[in-house]
Amino acid sequence: MPQSYIKRILDARIYDVAIETPLDSARLMSTRLNNQVLLKREDLQPVFSFKIRGAYNKLRQLTEEQLKQGVIAASAGNHAQGLALSAAKMGVKATIVMPRTTPAIKVDAVKARGARVVLHGDTFDEASRHAQKLVEEKGLTYIHPYDDPDVIAGQGTVALEILRQYPAHIDAIFVPVGGGGLCAGIAAYVKYVRPQTKVFAVEPEDAACLKAALDKKRRVVLPQVGIFADGVAVAQIGKETYRVLKETVDGVITANTDEICAAIKDIFEDTRAITEPAGALSLAGLKKYVAEHGVEGQTLVAIASGANTNFDRLRYISERTEIGEQREAILAVTIPEKPGSYKTFCKDLGKRNITEFNYRYADDRDARIFVGVQVAGDGNDRRVLVDELREKGYEVVDMTENEMAKLHIRHMVGGHAPQVTNERVYRFEFPERPGALMNFLNQLAGRWNISMFHYRNHGAAYGRVLVGMQVPAKEVREVNACLDELGYGYWDETDNEAYQFFLG
C-alpha cells in the first residue's frame, strides 16, 4: 500500500548531492489567477532536475558488491545526469546507454559528470535493450528512471519539503507525469500526511499514459507518443507507479503544446528561469484547473521539475506561447487584391493589434493573407473577432487550432509571382509601439500596390517588416523620398539573392 512509502521517504538521505529547493511564490501568476500559486523549484538542483533525488537514494540502498560491480541506465535526459553525478559522489562506476540520436549537449553533460557513455541504436527502446544486455554480460545493476520503490521514495522527498516549507493548508499540488516516479512519491506522502490536500497528475495530451491506464483500469501502451515535452514522453506508466497512483491521485489533467509553452513563459516572468517543457507542465495543468473550475482564493503548488532544454528550442516555444494563452488568433482571410485593401482590413480590426502578417501576390482578384491578431485571453474574444470580420464581408478561416498552419504554413506563405511587374522589395525596422504599423500603411498604402508583406511581432523594441511593392522605374525616387520622410530604418533588398531565388 502507498503507506509503506512513508518510512522510505523519511529515511531517504539524499542531501549529500541534492539540495532542498525553495518553494517560491509566483506573484504575477497569483495575481492573474486570483489564487496563491507556489512553485517548487526543482530546476535549481545541481543537475537542473529532481531526478538526482531518486537516483542517489537508489544507489544508497545497493550492497557493497553491487556498488563495486557498477551501475547502468538507459536515458537520454535528466535521469542520466542525476545518476552520473550520484555515482561520481559515491565513487561508483556508472554507464549510461544513450541513443545515437541524442544531442551532443546531453552526451557531453553526462560525460562531464564522470559517467561512461555508450551510444547505441537510434531510439530509446534500442538503447534500453542494449543496457539490459550489458546487465547480463557484466553484472551491472540497472537503475530504473522511475519504476523502482527506492527511486520513488527519493522523489517523494519533494513532498516532504513542500509540507515542511508551507505548514498551512495547501488546496492542491500539481505534478508532472511521465513514468510516474515523482508523482507516486509525492502523492503517497501527501495523502498520508495531509489527505485533505488534492494531488493532480498532469500529462501532455499526446503522451497521457496514466490517463489511458486509469480510463482502462489497467496499464496500456500508447501507440504513439509526442516528444515536445521529452522529459515525460513515456508510452506506458510504470507498474509500481501505477499501483500507487491509482489509489492516491485526485485526477489527471492534460495540457497541449501551446499551453505548455505559455506556462514556460509564465515561469520565466515570475522567476527569470527557463524551464524545459516537462518542467512547466504542472503549471499548465494548474492554470487549466483554475480556468475550468473557477477556483479562487486557494493555495496551489506546481512543481517546476527541470530546466534541461536546448537553447534552439526557445524560438519555437516563444512562437507558440501567445496561442497557448489564447491571446493570439491565427486567421486566413481573403481580401480584394487592390491598393488600400490591407489598410482597410486593419481599420476593420479596430483597436486590435496585429501580431503577424504573411502575404504573397497570387492573382488579380483576391489576396489570401495569413494574419495573427491579438485577442483577450478568455477564448470568447477570438470568436467575436471572426464573427465581426465575417459580418463585414470577409471570408475568414480560423486556424488557431490548426497544427499544420502553426508549424509549417505560417513560414511557407510565399513563392514566385512572375505576373508581378516592377516589384521593389524593402526591409524595414520600425518602433514596436501602437500606431507604428498603421502610420507605415498610411504613408504607403493606396499609392503603390503591395505585392508581398511579412511581419511578425517578437516582443522586441523594433518590428521587422519585409514589403514588396509594384513601383514603375520612374517612381522609384518618389518611393525612396516617401520612405525617408517616414523616418523608419529601411533597406532596398530588390537585388538580394534570397528574394531573387525564392520570391522574385
Please render the helix and strand layout as text:
Layout (H helix, E strand, L loop, with lengths): L3 H8 L11 E3 L1 H7 L2 E6 L9 H10 L3 H6 L1 E4 L3 H13 L3 E5 L5 H9 L3 E4 L4 H15 L2 E2 L6 H17 L6 E5 L4 H13 L4 E7 L4 H8 L22 H10 L2 E5 L1 H15 L5 H17 L5 E6 L9 H11 L3 E9 L4 H8 L5 E7 L5 E9 L5 H12 L3 E4 L4 H10 L10 E9 L4 H9 L4 E8 L5 E9 L5 H11 L2 E4 L4 H6 L2
Parallel strand pairs: 2-10, 3-4, 3-6, 4-5, 7-8, 7-10, 8-9
Antiparallel strand pairs: 1-2, 11-13, 11-14, 12-13, 12-16, 15-17, 15-18, 16-17
Helix pairs in contact: 1-8, 3-5, 3-8, 5-6, 8-9, 9-11, 12-13, 12-14, 18-19
Short description:
The chain is an alpha/beta fold and 504 residues long.
